[in-house]
Design a protein that fits this description.
single chain; alpha/beta; 6-stranded parallel β-sheet; 5-stranded parallel β-sheet; 18 strands; 22% strand
């Protein structure tokens, strides 16, 4: 039997929200699937420090030493420190974990726009109008602006909540400026994770096409999409090339299967036809229903980006 997919990489860069857990609830089977594998958890959520994230993972049954977690707060603070000199006054829009990361890099925390020479923005459930407005004033006055990430939504056990990207969009709309971004789909967070692990060959694992998969592709890594979070097979069928994953699986359990088991392509008993904007995948009697997604994705990839963007998928 072929070696499992995970064996081909010396580091798995695994997303958290929607991939390992949904809020306070572990994704079923996720901890077992990752047990014993060379994992670094890479999260765009900047609201907690790596130690707190690691403890949450351990509470949910994951093996997660503190040094196996890399957050966008760390990446964002590192990016900001590369753009401005030590001692620069920074207005932080975000949680205490982000403030600690910024301060730990020799930058000075301030609370008034008039004092700020830089702004860094990350997710916090406590962020309100006043703080966003203070950031907007500073940015309009010329402050350097870094966002830890631009995820529009945040997956939880209740569903999709407002993410940091939606709050970044508010500041963007008010300032007509664009931030530099540290988190996925941009590559600084992956560079940090691989450097910290001393690794060279990554598989990027996640549930979002526009962050995990796009970011992994931009990083030059193979990518693995799980269907436990934000995006589904219909989304993959219509996605542009930059959002196309190398591997697709219902859950993280596919990491322990041979690579061919999660690679889009033909499957016994399934056929695909395209008629206008309709992509129909049809199974013969006895065909494995789990295989339909691989056939659908492979068929869509034979079309141009423009053509597949409007496809409607039907599985029979």
């Amino acid at each position: 039997m072929s070696a499992p997919l995970a064996a081909g990489y010396d580091r798995l860069l695994v997303d958290l929200d929607g991939t390992a857990y949904a809020g306070a609830v572990a994704i079923p089977g996720a901890a077992e699937a990752l047990d014993g594998l060379p994992v670094t958890y890479v999260t765009n959520n900047a609201s907690r420090g790596p130690g707190d994230v690691a403890q949450h993972l351990r509470d949910l049954g994951f093996a997660a030493p503190d040094d196996t977690v890399v957050t966008s707060a760390q990446a964002g603070a590192g990016l900001l420190a590369s753009l401005v000199p030590a001692g620069t006054a920074v207005l932080v829009v975000g949680a205490p974990a982000l403030r600690a990361e910024v301060e730990g890099r020799g930058l000075v925390l301030v609370d008034r726009a008039e004092d700020a020479r830089a702004v860094i923005q990350g997710h916090s459930p406590e962020t309100g109008w006043a703080r966003l407005s203070e950031a907007a004033l500073a940015i309009r006055a010329g402050a350097v602006w870094v966002a830890t990430n631009t995820d529009a939504t945040l997956p939880t056990e209740r569903g999709l909540l407002v993410g940091n990207g939606s709050m970044v969009a508010a500041v963007r709309n008010a300032t007509e400026r664009e931030p530099q971004v540290a988190g996925k789909p941009f590559t600084p967070i992956f560079v940090d994770a691989m450097r910290a692990a001393g690794a060279t060959t990554a598989l990027v694992v996640g549930d979002r096409l526009d962050t995990d998969i796009e970011g992994g592709n931009a990083f030059g890594a193979d990518t693995y999409l799980v269907l436990t979070g934000v995006n589904d097979v219909q989304d993959v069928v219509t996605a542009p090339d930059r959002h196309q994953p190398t591997f697709v699986a219902e859950t993280l359990a596919g990491l322990r299967l041979p690579p061919a088991a999660t690679l889009p392509g033909p499957r016994h008993g399934w056929t695909a036809t395209v008629d206008g904007d309709d992509l129909t995948v049809t199974g013969a009697p006895g065909a494995d229903p789990a295989d339909a997604k691989f056939v659908a994705i492979a068929a869509a990839r034979e079309l141009s980006e423009e053509r597949r963007s409007g496809l409607r998928l039907t599985i029979r």
